[in-house]
Amino acid sequence: MTAPGRRSSTFTRLLRHGFTDPSAAERLLDSPELVPVRNDPVLLEALGATADPDGALHGLVRLLEAQPGPTARRELLDTLIAAKPLRDRLLGVLGASEALADHLARHAGDWRALVTYEPRDLHPGVTEFERGLAGADDPVALRVAYRRCLLSIAARDVCGTIDVAQTAAELADLATATLRAALRIAVAAAPEDAALCRLAVIAMGKCGGHELNYVSDVDVIFVGEPAEGADETRAVRAATRLASHLMRICSETTVEGSIWPVDANLRPEGRNGPLVRTLSSHVAYYQRWAKTWEFQALLKARPVAGDAALGAEYVAALQPLVWGAAERENFIADVQKMRRRVVENIPAAEVDRQLKLGPGGLRDVEFAVQLLQLVHGRADASLRSGTTLDALRALSAGGYVGRTDATQLDEAYRFLRSLEHRIQLHRLRRTHLVPEDEADLRRIGRSLGLRTDPVAGLLRDWRRHASVVRRLHEKLFYRPLLDAVAALAPGEARLSAEAARERLVALGYDDPAAALRHLEALASGVTRKAAIQRTLLPVLLGWFADSADPDAGLLNFRKVSDALGKTPWYLRLLRDEGAAAENLARVLSAGRLAPDLLMRAPEAVALLGDGDGGTGRGLAPRSRAALEQEILAAVRRADGATQAVTAARGVRRRELFRTAAADIVGSYGTEAHSAEADQGALVDRVGSAVSDLTAATLAGTLRAVVREGWGDELPTRFAIIGMGRFGGHELGYGSDADVLFVHEPRDGAAEREAGEAANRVVSEMRRLLQVPSADPPLIIDADLRPEGKSGPLVRTLKSYEAYYRRWSLVWESHALLRAEFVAGDEELGRRFIELIDPLRYPARGLGDDAVRDIRRLKARMETERLPRGTDPKLNAKLGPGGLSDVEWTVQLAQLRHGHEVPGLRTTRTRSALAAAGAAGLIPPEDAAVLDEAWVLATRVRNAVMLVRGRAGDTFPSDSRELAAVGRYLGYGHGHAGDMLDAYRRTARRARGVVDELFYA
Length: 1000
Description:
Elements: H1 9-16, H2 22-29, H3 41-48, H4 53-66, H5 70-82, H6 84-96, H7 98-106, H8 119-122, H9 126-133, H10 139-158, H11 164-189, H12 191-196, E1 197-203, H13 205-208, E2 218-226, H14 232-251, E3 262-263, E4 276-277, H15 279-288, H16 292-298, E5 302-306, H17 308-322, H18 331-344, H19 362-376, H20 388-397, H21 403-427, H22 438-447, H23 454-472, H24 475-483, H25 497-507, H26 512-523, H27 528-545, H28 550-564, H29 568-576, H30 578-588, H31 593-599, H32 624-637, H33 641-668, H34 679-710, E6 716-722, H35 724-727, E7 737-745, H36 751-770, E8 780-781, E9 794-796, H37 797-806, H38 810-816, E10 820-824, H39 826-840, H40 848-865, H41 883-897, H42 909-918, H43 924-948, H44 959-968, H45 976-999
Parallel strand pairs: 2-3, 2-4, 7-8, 7-9
Antiparallel strand pairs: 1-2, 1-5, 6-7, 6-10
């Protein structure tokens, strides 16, 4: 007896052998069934070698208890101690699978399936498994026989006799034999149906690819044809009944559970389509209606049961369509979109534990390999394998994937599949989630050979392999393009020029030859610069391909790299800050405006990297005060007005780039951050940033002109009033600056002298801001002044007062709604605003005549200003439901009610619209419709400027430019038509509201 407080030597030995509950294990070892062998060191050593020694011992006791009598129990124990192969297999299974331990307890003689250890038993195929299922003539017997066969696979798997790829292949072979047995049972139950038809079962997914899991849906497609002389309709119905019965035999739950679900949802039209089709019906569907993902699925199609000749005909008929899928429009985008959709549908609570679908999971490897197969399998038949690892090996051998990358992915995929197998094997449940329970993690880690610290080791290895997959799965597609133009090590295979061209075309490049020249210029050579480019370009090429114009993205990147390639910080920035490289790729491939601004001063690339992976601090808009401070400091340092305004325009160009880049990145989104969901916030950010920048530029230019011509002080006070979109803080990238100029002679200054000085200031400001240079011009438009183009360019405050008192028309009051001081003498600007407030917010509102005048003016503008030859419904400014409609509706409410509703006294359209809604002047639902239309129309105009590099109010006619506008607005490749339809719907709803509120 063990002394109190001391542990027995058995307890200590059990701990040393990996038991977690030695006390319970001692009790089990003392059970009558194990008395003959309890002290046998061979047994304890064998139990300690299993994944879960406690579970293995418990399962062994249950199996012994289930034996029919002492003789059978003694036979099992004797064989267990004497035969090491059985001992390793049986205890290995009991320690790894609770579900198979349950099976053995129910079917106590099935342990004998593990006794034989001959070469033919080591790698059974379909024939051997069919032999094992031959006696099963009903669903229950089939389940028992299936698990007996599964037992042998699991035993060899956990003992390491077969690797993960062989295990998956054997599971697929067992599934094939099971489908054949199920069809045999279905045929025996309905021989009259079998006589009417030929039925072929096509395995898809992992079963078709010879890489099945322990527990997985078995994906199939059924093909039926009439037997000779049979009616086709009756034959298809008969085949459907047989197929349905086959599915039930495998899927339904019986006293022995189920085998696995048979899933036919990959068939044409999915679950909405007929379960069985004729071969011609299948071919017709794939020729006319199939989506890209359906051809991707067919990569793994393999006849497994039923009419072998019909199955072979099916594969032969569809293979040419599969290998032509890469020529489909938007092929790459469709495949990548499908992958993104899978990730987005993972519940947030599961994404970090998802072994199959999550980032760095099995699906990433499979998608990447399948993408490459579809692109290059057209010309290279060696790539046409449905098995992921075989295909990866062929891709590496052909140079389509780098040898190192292929090796790392092979290792990662094998580890992830092994982990998936061990997770599912425990309870034979379909799951792809890594468990959180420490006991489960310990069992899995030990089963994979991690004995020192199995939990920590398992999590470490999982993270490492997932990281490899995340890093490589997209680069896999792009990196060999660089190898095609770079010097490789002897013996290393590379993409042929034709294969590289195919891959670039599949990515959406219109000029693959030029793209290869750019890659060669960027990545060839042995310099450190070329080495960094070879690291960056695989990822950049993927981001370029996600745009509407990959060619422009790559060309622009080459230009920037040529300009900055010798600058030490440039490539370091792109290499070390992921946000900088991705932001640059988005900006360079989104259109003409941002790259043009960048090319004029490439050092602005630095703005793209000062952040945390989103748009970052470097792209955050700067305040007007900060902009004005920088510009005025530059003006003070300059020698003369020309140099000063050049410096101010340089700041403006850089800040326009900052704003455009932030807008593009916010609209496209990044890998770390989704696209900005609040479209209104994007519009407001751009409008405020460009308006503040314009105001600061005018302030600096005014200071420069005054300093050069008059020193510190003009003989007259001078103020600039922003009008239109400028006054409303709603300027777009291509907007002119609408302004009024007002001055007031200083004490002692002659009025004539003051007027001449003010006019000289305006003339010089306009000239300097439009001088041809590398910087975009700033056009000053003063046409909204009293008397329009016929009136004086500059007036005194008294002159404005006299004019507005005697001659002002309703359209001028309307225009003054947007007036706001922007630069110059602040006190004079305040007095001007006080002067016009009674005009734009009249105490008695608007009379009926004034309202009719405004409506008449609006109608005339629609008739006269809409450009001919374009669709007015797609004109974002003047078309129905466009900017003009919304703004005039809001401004009519301001003129009528601004005096009594303080919230309406704003120059900003959205703020005034919100105030009108809050005050009950516009129904809230109508206000929401108008706001949505105004935001969308503004976004369209911004998009057109970003894409084309010049202002426009209508959607581009060029298909690539239209696609780029769509990408900016959140529409994927091939959805430009959806974008136009959505715009028409939004504008049509807004026009209905305008007709009700403005014209009624």
